[in-house]
Design a protein that fits this description.
The complex is a heterodimer of chains A (about 140) and B (about 280). Chain A is an alpha/beta fold and about 140 residues long. Chain A is built from six helices and seven strands. Chain B is globular, with a radius of gyration of 19 Å. The chains are: A alpha/beta (about 140), B alpha+beta (about 280).
């Protein structure tokens, strides 16, 4: 069974929400065409760190990049994850062209809009922890 | 008169962790910073509780127990370092400290309905740590991890690092009173005085910028009446030899070795440099 990155993200995000209930769901992840999906994580605070821990359990995902505006937090986070590139902000991460297929946003909620839009401009699938209001302009875009 | 120290606590790893943080200044911003550092340290302890708890199915250790016999499991650097420390202690103690004792613990009544006891394999020779990829795998089925003999110390080591990064120069951290880290000294003494045991005449150890771990086979028993420390070599509950204390730079290493010394009943030649056994055991 194989899938594209958008289908994969749907599986991943649903599962990340339900891991505490059904940990065996890791086994259900479909293989990704062309090897592990290279994922970037924006924000390496408490939420970002928890997401890193969960994603590390999924063989079909490779955490390829991390970014944080706090240099100290970014340095610590990048040292923890094998072979993850570190960027000072999401713009640098997206501009690096390191074949990042998906970005998970773990920053304060009020910053999500700009990051999601930048991801859309680069055609990178993104996921924010909170849903955008369904009728908002950004959600329609 | 020194101001009352800030005390913060949380429940984790089946016990109570507590931080004692003397306020070295009356300035309100200093107290605020101290509380923020303390809360970050407690949060770190809670994080390790979630990762290392074999009794919850979504923990990292449960994931490893389910998966590592079939494929390597990726780890973050600090988690990999913890497993490396555990394997080094297993090797140096000639198997007296072993994190693959989960089946034995379960057989002795320290089981949980979510992790049923099973006839498993004991021995950290089944653990394959890949230094290049930071992965762990089991080379034998039936292997199962229980980090109860090192987890508290490791959580304290990480909390200690957070407090020091935040500029804290005086603090006492403990998990269940058996694993302790002292940062600096209290304001009115040349070290933190810690009693080994609860008796009135219990020996007192003074520590400063170091860790202390106390193990006592009889200090805790399961519902089936078995001691909470098992002997991985004999695959039986450890003998009651009284309290054994180890001091040294790392709380994780001190905890692993205080457990090993209860099992061995003596201090082996391979006891790590920089650590001290405080107590009645005979050196090899």
């Amino acid at each position: 069974m194989s899938t594209d990155r958008r289908q994969f993200m749907t599986h991943t995000l649903g599962a990340l929400a339900g891991l505490a209930i059904v940990p065996e769901s890791y086994e259900l992840f479909p293989a990704v065409q062309g090897g592990p999906l290279r994922v970037g994580i924006v924000g390496t605070g408490r939420q970002g760190r928890a997401i890193v821990t969960e994603l590390q359990k999924i063989d079909q995902v490779q955490i390829a990049a991390l970014c944080d505006t706090s240099a100290a937090r970014l340095k610590t986070a990048a040292e923890r994850v094998k072979d993850a590139a570190a960027y000072p902000d999401h713009g640098a991460l997206l501009a690096a062209g390191s074949d990042i297929k998906a970005v998970i946003i773990a920053t304060p909620t009020h910053t999500h809009r700009g990051i999601v839009l930048d991801c859309l401009r680069r055609a990178v699938t993104s996921s924010a922890k909170r849903r955008l209001p369904r009728r908002s302009k950004i959600a329609r875009r | 008169v020194n101001p009352e120290p800030l005390r913060l606590a949380c429940d984790a790893m089946g016990t109570r962790f507590e931080l004692v943080l003397p306020a070295l200044s009356e300035r309100s911003e200093s107290k605020r910073d101290l509380r923020a550092a303390g809360e970050a340290a407690l949060e770190e302890i809670g994080r390790w509780h979630q990762l290392l708890n074999r009794f919850t199915p979504d923990s990292l250790v449960s994931h490893i127990n389910r998966t590592a016999a079939f494929r390597p499991v990726r780890l973050e650097r600090d988690t990999f370092a913890l497993f490396r420390t555990a394997v080094e202690a297993w090797r140096a103690s000639q198997g007296a400290f072993d994190i693959t004792v989960a089946p034995l613990m379960a057989d002795n009544g320290f089981a949980d309905s979510s992790v049923p006891a099973r006839g498993g394999r004991i021995g950290s020779d089944a653990l394959v740590l890949d230094e290049r990829d930071w992965t762990i795998r089991f080379n034998a089925e039936g292997t199962s991890l229980d980090l109860g003999g090192i987890a508290k110390g490791h959580a304290l080591d990480c909390a200690n690092a957070i407090l020091r990064d935040a500029g804290v120069t005086s603090a006492l951290l403990h998990g269940g009173t058996s694993s302790v880290i002292a940062i600096g000294t209290p304001p009115d003494d040349s070290g933190w005085r810690v009693a080994i045991g609860s008796a009135v005449d219990a020996p007192v150890v003074m520590i400063r910028d170091e860790a202390l771990s106390v193990s006592d086979a009889a200090s805790q028993t399961s519902l089936t009446g078995h001691h909470h420390i098992v002997d991985p070599l004999l695959q039986l509950p450890a003998q009651d030899r009284g309290a054994v204390a180890v001091t040294g730079p790392s709380a994780a290493v001190a905890e692993a070795w205080s457990t090993a010394l209860v099992v061995l009943g003596r201090v082996p030649l391979a006891f790590p440099a920089g650590y001290q056994c405080v107590g009645h055991l005979v050196s090899a």
